[in-house]
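[Solved] Which block belongs to which protein?

Original post:
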Amino acid sequence: MANIKRVAVLGGGSFGTVLANIAASNGYEVSLWVRDAEQAFRINSEGANSTYHPELKLSENITASDDLKSVLSDSEYILVATPSIIFEEVINRIEPFINSSNAVISCTKGIKAEPFRTMTDIINQHLGQKIGNKVGVLSGPNLAKEIAENKIAGTVIASENEQILIEIKSMLSSNTFKVFSSQDIQGVELAGALKNIYAICCGIAHAKLVGENALGFIVTRSMAEMSRFAVAKGANPITFLGLAGMGDLMATCTSTLSRNFQLGELLGEDLSLSEAKEKVGQVAEGARTLEVVYAEAKKINVSMPLVNSLYEILYADASSEKLIKDLLDHPNDCLLYTSPSPRDATLSRMPSSA
């Protein structure tokens, strides 16, 4: 029993539940933090999270609780899978219980405003003095419903700490869920957050029945915009050609399981943002991320026409038709990033076959 490793998963939502179940199925003792005692009681008594995955039988190695202190007790690895809006609050609440033996992994795709911060920035800001570089981010094309159904999927763990890369791959890999590693925390994290914006764009376009060619057009433009922005923030452009970048973008921009795609479809049917959010039900992070990225892109002077169009649709009462018009008005805006030297100029454009 002494060799059994304890893991805390903070967030009993759709993704947190499937991560907890994979780790528990791999022999880890998992404590799952949920926000109310009633939900914890139901999970423990039913052996399932009926709110999000009623069909998924949870491992007996999972114990749910609404008590943060008990969930964190003796847990070496802490996976934070809460909505971005409460992420910093949760990190603040766990700070008294954290010490140098802990590693904290963000599994949340979002960005915080004022000032611009990623989720790992927030972890470092509040916990960095205690845990050093034992910080990571998990991101990829991870539609939770498919993972719960044991459909094939992959994800990326990014960290500067080699032991985290090794441990998370061991903890979360299964016959159908594969974990790859990266040291580009900034790139992996920004890819996961930014693609939610473009999933909304694709949802709008899908509702407008523009066709598959136009969706391919939007996805290509989306990759150019998000890459440019992330590179300006210090990310490696190559990250965006991999699973955390193109893989996640494709999955989220083409799947009706994506909450952000669903939100876009409803906006394309001319529902208001509040109506669309209510109909989707679960949190769609893209609308929040859009506000932050729109302001930051203006600040650092990065061209993001799709972001600008979507912002006007969501927050300035523009018609959803504006997205398609602006797409056609900026057909050449496919630069990945501005290359500083002629030698690297060939890297600054998407390949013609992309």
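(Second protein starts here: sequence line, then its structure tokens.)
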Amino acid sequence: MTKKSLIKLYCYRVAQLLRLVPSVWMLRNPFKIYECQELMRDSGLSAGDSILALGCGRGMQTQLLAESCSSAVGVDTSEEQIGYANLFVRHSRVEPKVKFICSTLQQARLPGGSFDKVFSFCVLEHIPKLHEVLKELHRILRVAGELHVTVDSLSSIDDPQLIQQHQREHQVVQYFTPETLKAQLESAGFRLRECRFIMTGSFATARFQLRIQGNQPVVALLARRSFVRRLRVEDAATLGNRGIMLLARAEAV
């Protein structure tokens, strides 16, 4: 573990002792904060739900989800990320409800019909054989189980070179439109209930382009709140026919 990671872990332990985490504000990227808030809002999470977080990374969103459900499983293919996830969940108030698995979804061989909801925060666009993964999600969800996802669209960015740079640096297999996302979900046995763009305004587009270019500085906590508020105000005021991401909710049928 790097010195930077050790310092971050120490600060996180202090925040745990002060009962300040899990909190969405432990995410440093304001785009991810807003994405997480939007996907969790109106997801209907309840205390009896069993949920899966696909591509959980360091597990911060999984911990947030665990606050509102009975159990949460995070799956990721990166040993390093799952290692961090287990470190950060240790001593957390949600630790008894959380389990992390280092595996592909197919190799994890989770029991069929064992989850009420699946959450995925901008993961589907990185999966080469997405249809296989979507079929497996359908299998492990209970009848009428729900899939809540965000995916990259970047439809509001008109510079093809920036999109190519983002695709190359983040190993993006595909960017989604409402039509392509709907078609792939329905092909795997899901019925789409909601699909809409988020981060639809000029502020979101300009700041995301800066991130791609590597010119976006770390945003301090108070500035993060203002940043997220700006994204929300823009989305409320914009027609939303283009955006950085798509948010979708679907039901297993």
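Accepted answer:
You had them paired correctly. Confirming on the second one: The radius of gyration is 18 Å.
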